Hints:
By secondary structure, the chain is α/β, with parallel strands linked by helices. The protein has three domains: 221 residues, Vaccinia Virus protein VP39 (Rossmann fold); 66 residues; 83 residues, no CATH class. 44% of the residues lie in helices and 18% in strands. It has 19 helices and 16 strands. Strand 1 and strand 2 form a beta hairpin. The site of S-adenosylmethionine (SAM) has 21 residues, from strand 4.
Amino acid sequence: MIKHDGYVTDTAYPAHFHRELQPLWLATQALAQGAAPPDLSGPYAYCELGCGVGVNLLVNAATQPHAQFVGVDVNARHLAVARRAAQQLGLTNLRFIHADFSSFARSNSLFFDLIVSHGVWSWISAAQQRDVLALVGRFLKPAGLFYLHYQCHPGATRMLPAQKLLNELAHHLTGSATQNVQAGLALLDRLDGAGIFHDQPDVGARLQALQRQDAAYLAHDLLNDHWSPQHSADLHRQVSRAGLTYLASADPFENLESLSVPGAIQPVLAGIRIPSVRELVKDLARHQHQRRDLFQKQPVALSAEAHLAALGALRLARLPQAPGSGAVEFRTPIGAINGPSELFSPLLERLAQGPARVDALSQLPIYSGKPALLMQSLQMLMWQGYAHPLRQDAHDSAATAQALQRWLDRQDLRIDVVNACATAVHRPLSFSHD
Ligand SMILES: C[S@@+](CC[C@H](N)C(=O)[O-])C[C@H]1O[C@@H](n2cnc3c(N)ncnc32)[C@H](O)[C@@H]1O
């Protein structure tokens, strides 16, 4: 097993796509909070730290030809896949830099409108984290957005002893990271069978779920020396020292407290004014294990009128998996929520006819004079993967988007590019009824 500064490098991480990393998604979430987002209609620059095999960047670069994209990763095998794909697709607005974050922070001279990092922060050393924040503090432009995904307490806390055991064992084995994680999980399985988790049944259940996952994914997730969930309050304090302000979650459901916080907790939460304490209470209430946090450098708050006008000008499109009408069942982390037909059917029916501006949707009778209710319903449709903002630029990227789709299909990644929205969607799993 080979590591760089405590992080596994002898195993390739599987390709993943995360919609929350896409510029349009992040800009829309910033706007929903009343912050002026970076302008994506003209040239802009974007950097992904720890980009893996680069699927997010390929989607971005193929659908946003007027912007420049940079991916940084320490694993040369990941970048070989990413570079080959970019070359095959003829993408000239995407480049990959083989470096760790500390050396990239020293050598970089590019300024970015967006910097994102997913599945990286909680797995790297404190020195690498410090240099990520130094980089963000120095090279993010004013009003630039920083997206950071990380593991948090209290949901991830329960896995600390199991991760420690897996990683400690792996240090004493001679195999590859995938072999070592499988050996460790087999040991944990035997211990589980012998009743070691009898007083923590949720840990046993989580380990059983892990047994079914891809070994390469598990090696990256679990065999790192610096694996450490954090309290959101501590993380926010660290990021604020780099000169950034916490805006909201990039997961819109988490920003809709009336839906995502259990009802009995809401009156208590309503009485708490200190932002960091509110975030900790929400983490506790949701037993949150990971966060997708959105920060902005020198945010400019929009006036109420400017905010309403900017939201009204947003154009939304229906995504392929959306129903044409009816009620919606939202499958949320705190259980199913029924979205009533009277609220959702008018939106679904209107979007089934074609893209619509938010201010046109606000004319629907059920939403007349209720902009907050409309935004909540639209955020839920976006969260469910039924609607998405349309691109703000007019550049033609049909050919590169189609070429990317062919590449994704050849890799059997089950991801569909949505060029009009500069994003992609996961294909639903088809179930066999044999
Ligand atoms: C779990 S993968 C996440 C990949 C991608 N962001 C995603 O979400 O699919 C973590 C990535 O961070 C990279 N990485 C880990 N430590 C790094 C460091 N110190 N400098 C640069 N890249 C690093 C790994 O090589 C790996 O590609």
